[in-house]
Amino acid sequence: MDLHNLNPSSLKSRFTTRFLRALTEINARKPIASSSSPREIFQRYRRIKDAADTSMAYSVRSRRTWSKATLWRLRTPSHRRRLASFGRRSSLNKTRTTTTASHRGAVVVQITSRGGGLGVQLEELRELVPGGEAMDLCNLLDETAHYIKCLTTQVQVMRTIANLYSLE
Amino acid sequence: MTSENDDMGLAMSSISMFNKSSNTSDSFFSSCWDPIVSQSGSLGGSSMASHYHLVMENQGISGTSHVSHYQSDPSFVELVSKLTGFDGGNLSQMVGPFSLPQCNQVANRRCPPNFTLNTEGGNERGSTNSLRFLDEHRISKEALVGTSPNGKIRKCAPESGSPLRSCKNGDEEPVMDLSSEGCDGPREQARKKPETEQNTGANSRGKQAVKQDKDSSQSEEAPKENYIHVRARRGQATNSHSLAERVRREKISERMRLLQELVPGCNKITGKAVMLDEIINYVQSLQQQVEFLSMKLATVNPEINLDLDRILSKDILHQRSGSAAVLGLGPGSNSPYGFSPSTFPGTISGIPNKNPQFPPLPQTVLENELLNLFQMGFSGSTMDGFGLNGQLKPEM
Description:
Chain A: Pfam families: IBH1_N. Chain A: It is found in: Nucleus. Chain A: This is IBH1-like N-terminal domain-containing protein. The complex is a heterodimer of chains A (about 170) and B (about 400). Chain A is mainly alpha-helical. Chain A has six helices and two strands, in the order H-H-H-H-E-E-H-H. Chain A is about 65% helix and about 5% strand. In chain A, helix 1 runs antiparallel to helix 2. Chain B has 14 helices and four strands. Chain B has helices at about 1-15, 25-40, 45-60, 75-85, 90-95, 100-110, 125-145, 210-215, 240-260, 270-300, 310, 315-320, 320-325, 360-375; strands at about 150-155, 195, 200, 225-230. In chain B, a hairpin with a 3-residue loop joins strand 2 and strand 3. The N and C termini of chain B lie far apart (about 90 Å). The chains are: A mainly alpha (about 170), B mainly alpha (about 400). Chains A and B meet through helix 1, helix 2, helix 5 and helix 6 of A and helix 9, helix 10, helix 12, helix 13 and helix 14 of B.
């Protein structure tokens, strides 16, 4: 993977360009002062993380459920998201899920175990992969594979950027 | 006319259908097929029956001389043209207008009628279509009368697996490039043992096992269809539900195999539950890495302005193991995931030291400090990656 990513339209390069643009924008907006409070640092961290996720979701060329879910999650405010997800999930998963509200807008979906003992793990996987609540196992595995691939790309690029920054 | 005869002759000669060693079978076949020949079928039934007989006789005699006995019927030509028009569609549609009691009779007599005919030459499409139709029809009758434990279902799945297309047993069978990237349709039903398709399941029929070894595959492509014909394996239930279940399970196992390749270190793991555990752990660790790296980027001050041109150079795209190894974060250094926040000194010193150079050890310290600080101090948002799960064991 090291040497054949000169392809200008590969996932890696697309993500890199977007993310770097976002980074420079964030840095330009609020440069790090020597006396930044942890809260400011934290805000920065949140912004950078959201920028990374957004740029990753945008760089996905073929529309994927998890990318759409990520973008949706980052765009709609939490209260609206909670309402929407109630309706969405209950209508989609009537047979096997019950939604319970939890704190701070994170909706926990409890999936009644169906299909041989994999219920707990399936539920965990659904929680991990964005947008995975409303998919059956087959598609979920597909999405997971693609999501893993994109996550590894993201980690690689971010690590390299961080190293570049820190080494200078 | 003659060209057609030649084609038929070629077809017949290249057919390796039955146990040639057994003479009894030949006589059996001839007796079996006699009533068909004797009957004067309607609407092309006779032509088809005669075609059957043609085939059968050739086996016993193994010569093309007898082909000349049967002039190509004009009705046969009509039949061929009719069948080409069907385009390999729904089997029931094809079966409908051609009610062939003879075939039923044949099936009942347990004649091994599963010959898949090899055709060469120009008129392949027509002849193969007709032959394949016969094959299908016969097989469907078999299924109906329950003489064989096989069943078939149709599933809607635009799968593009087509190694069946590549069944060329050395013959010059040009694969009909109907560009059927879709499911291979009725051709599935005549598949033989050497082809084990994930989409369709293996075809190992008990009675015709031996013959299938000698059979040569058909060359024709099914026209593009939206469903997969699945054949049940021997000794399995032919309930349509169980067949659908089996296809679904195969799909899932195929996806799990793909995932196994993606997740490092999962080659020896067998079993869905453990595999899923590994996958979950890996996804969690990846997400945590993203969070950690974004936090690191938040603290690092890019004092030197890196313009985009230089950044987009090969440095970023290719620096993977170089600098990472310098900083001790290379893959495989700690955990299999290359990142292990395992040691937690738990002390919180002044956060982020603006020292842009992070020696390896304080990096983990920094990360831990940040984690602890954020967990304790900032409760305004969900911190997914820093929850008390997975590998992070904060000691507070």
